[in-house]
Amino acid sequence: MKANRERVIFCDFDGTITVNDNIVAIIKHFNPPGWQKIVDDIVAQRISIRDGVGQLFRLLPAARQDEVIEYAISNAKIRDGFEELLAYCKEQSVPFYVTSGGIDFFVYPILASFDIPVNHIYCNGSDFTGESIEITWPNPCDDHCSNDCGMCKTTIMRRFPPEKYERILIGDSVTDFEGAKLADLVFSRSHLSEKCRELGLPFVPYETFHEVIAYLSKERTEQQ
């Protein structure tokens, strides 16, 4: 069955493509009062991702736009093997989508040097015109999701029906929990591994994208 389906990869950004979680790094760096409780509430799923991320950025004045953007971009470090994974996907004709709970002002600039079509990058937007930074949500949940995700990864994944596609998810944290339930194969780290264990979902742990490539190559060879 798998061999007859087209593979498609949905890859998280913060803490996955990048080594660090950029949203948390920004908030920690500027250190507005009250941020830690909001982060804890997001991770513990006491509040929705959309609500929590919106609250976090409202703690920062829009007047600091240039500082926030410069810090976010300069602070990011790409995980080893990412460029090689993109090359592997191109060579194997595997569509690669970035499905990010991150924000446009750092996601697009950080990914600009890589060969990824802009329409394959999904993330949240930003508005600096008010007193505080406001996050916008161009990719909301569809009728099948009521989790108030903000950038709804399962909505994107459902555009690729399971009878036609083998859906592969690569992620690390709370924004990937729902997508992991839909995926045929999950590569996970950190909170996502814990959630997969809790839900009894099969997963493959990784630290670099070289491990992802090795596993996909081995599995593909075994199917042939």
Automatic annotation (TrEMBL):
Gene this protein is translated from: mtnX
GO molecular function per UniProt: 2-hydroxy-3-keto-5-methylthiopentenyl-1-phosphate phosphatase activity
Similarity-based family: Belongs to the HAD-like hydrolase superfamily. MtnX family.
Signal peptide (residue range): none
Name of the protein in its database record: 2-hydroxy-3-keto-5-methylthiopentenyl-1-phosphate phosphatase
SUPFAM superfamilies registered for this protein in UniProt: HAD-like (SSF56784)
InterPro entries tied to this protein: HAD-like_hydrolase_phosphatase, HAD-like_sf, HAD-SF_hydro_IB_MtnX, HAD_hydro_PyrdxlP_Pase-like, HAD_sf
EC number: 3.1.3.87
Stated role: Dephosphorylates 2-hydroxy-3-keto-5-methylthiopentenyl-1-phosphate (HK-MTPenyl-1-P) yielding 1,2-dihydroxy-3-keto-5-methylthiopentene (DHK-MTPene).
Keyword Hydrolase: yes
Pfam families xref list: HAD (PF12710)
Keywords (A to Z) from UniProt: Amino-acid biosynthesis, Hydrolase, Methionine biosynthesis
